[in-house]
Structure formats: C-alpha cells, structure tokens
Amino acid sequence: MAMREIRTVGDPVLRTPCEPVENIDARVRSLVEDLLETVDEEGRAGLAANQIGVGLRAFSWNIDDEVGYVLNPRIVALSEDEYQDGDEGCLSVPGLWFPTRRAWYTRVEGIDLDGRPVVVEGEELMARCLQHECDHLDGMLYLDRLEKGVRKQAMKAVREQL
C-alpha cells in the first residue's frame, strides 16, 4: 500500500474518461489498497483512480468514519425533486470551494474485488461524494457543473493558482 500523489487541475488524466476494470488482478488489488490508504486522511471525502494517475473506473470514499471503495461504479438513481447546493471542493483543485448543485440522494452500483455486486447509496455528503467521484471517472471536474458566473470566478481562481 502507498499514499499516492494527487494529480491536480491541468493534468490531462483528469479529463480522460476512465476504462472499466475488466480483470481483477494484482494491479487492481494494489490500486484499491492505494485508493483506500490515500483517502483515509483528515479532510478527504473521496478519491477517484484518475486522481492518482490511473485510468480505471474505481474510487474510494471516507464519509462519516466509513472508508470503502467500488469498482466500475455507475449512478443508477438520483433524487429528482430534492437538491443540495452547498460548497464543494476537490483534492485536484486544492483550496477552492464553490457552490455546486447536486442531487440530495444518489445510488451507485458496481463490483468489489471479488467481482460481487456492490450497492452504495447515501444522502447529503455521501450523495455529493458519489456524484463527484463518478464525474471524475467520466473525465469531469466539479468546476464543469458550476453555474456560468460562478464558473468564471472559479476558473480565474484556478488560473491564479497555476
């Protein structure tokens, strides 16, 4: 296991959609160990594989003292009538937080390291995390979801950091 370096905005791996995990081998098992170790630090809610430079569909989370992972996640349900619009941040966009509209509830399905089906669901922060990490695996950053005026402000802040 290893604490991995977080890739930051500007790195092309963050804008590249991730490939599905086809074979659960030693490489994938090591990836999951690294995801779990790297997310298990104060202030970290979730971590997608491409944030540590690996283009596979996998992410980990650390919400309310629960640390876990899912391979090949896909969002299968979102609340349609209830939303949250609190500030959101990202390890790959360090130090910047902006109001981001997300569904209140999210349900994700995927598999574990044994190839068994996994369901992960939650409300509020967990729902936000699931949506945020699935976006990463699709090559998106939360900045892409910001309202036009806020996005302009956010992109200016990102440029000032570079």
UniProtKB/TrEMBL annotation:
Cofactor(s) for this UniProt protein: Fe(2+)
Record: residues binding Fe cation: C90, H132, H136
Cofactor note: Binds 1 Fe(2+) ion.
Entry-linked SUPFAM superfamilies: Peptide deformylase (SSF56420)
Active-site residues from the entry: E133
Pfam families noted in UniProt: Pep_deformylase
EC number annotated for this UniProt entry: 3.5.1.88
Catalysis performed (reactions): N-terminal N-formyl-L-methionyl-[peptide] + H2O = N-terminal L-methionyl-[peptide] + formate
Keywords: Hydrolase, Iron, Metal-binding, Protein biosynthesis
UniProt superkingdom: Bacteria
Function description: Removes the formyl group from the N-terminal Met of newly synthesized proteins. Requires at least a dipeptide for an efficient rate of reaction. N-terminal L-methionine is a prerequisite for activity but the enzyme has broad specificity at other positions.
PANTHER family cross-referenced by the UniProt entry: PEPTIDE DEFORMYLASE, PEPTIDE DEFORMYLASE, MITOCHONDRIAL
NCBIfam families: pept_deformyl (TIGR00079), PRK00150.1-3 (NF001159)
Family of this protein: Belongs to the polypeptide deformylase family.
Protein name: Peptide deformylase
Organism of origin: Georgenia halophila
Taxonomic placement: Bacteria, Bacillati, Actinomycetota, Actinomycetes, Micrococcales
Primary gene name: def
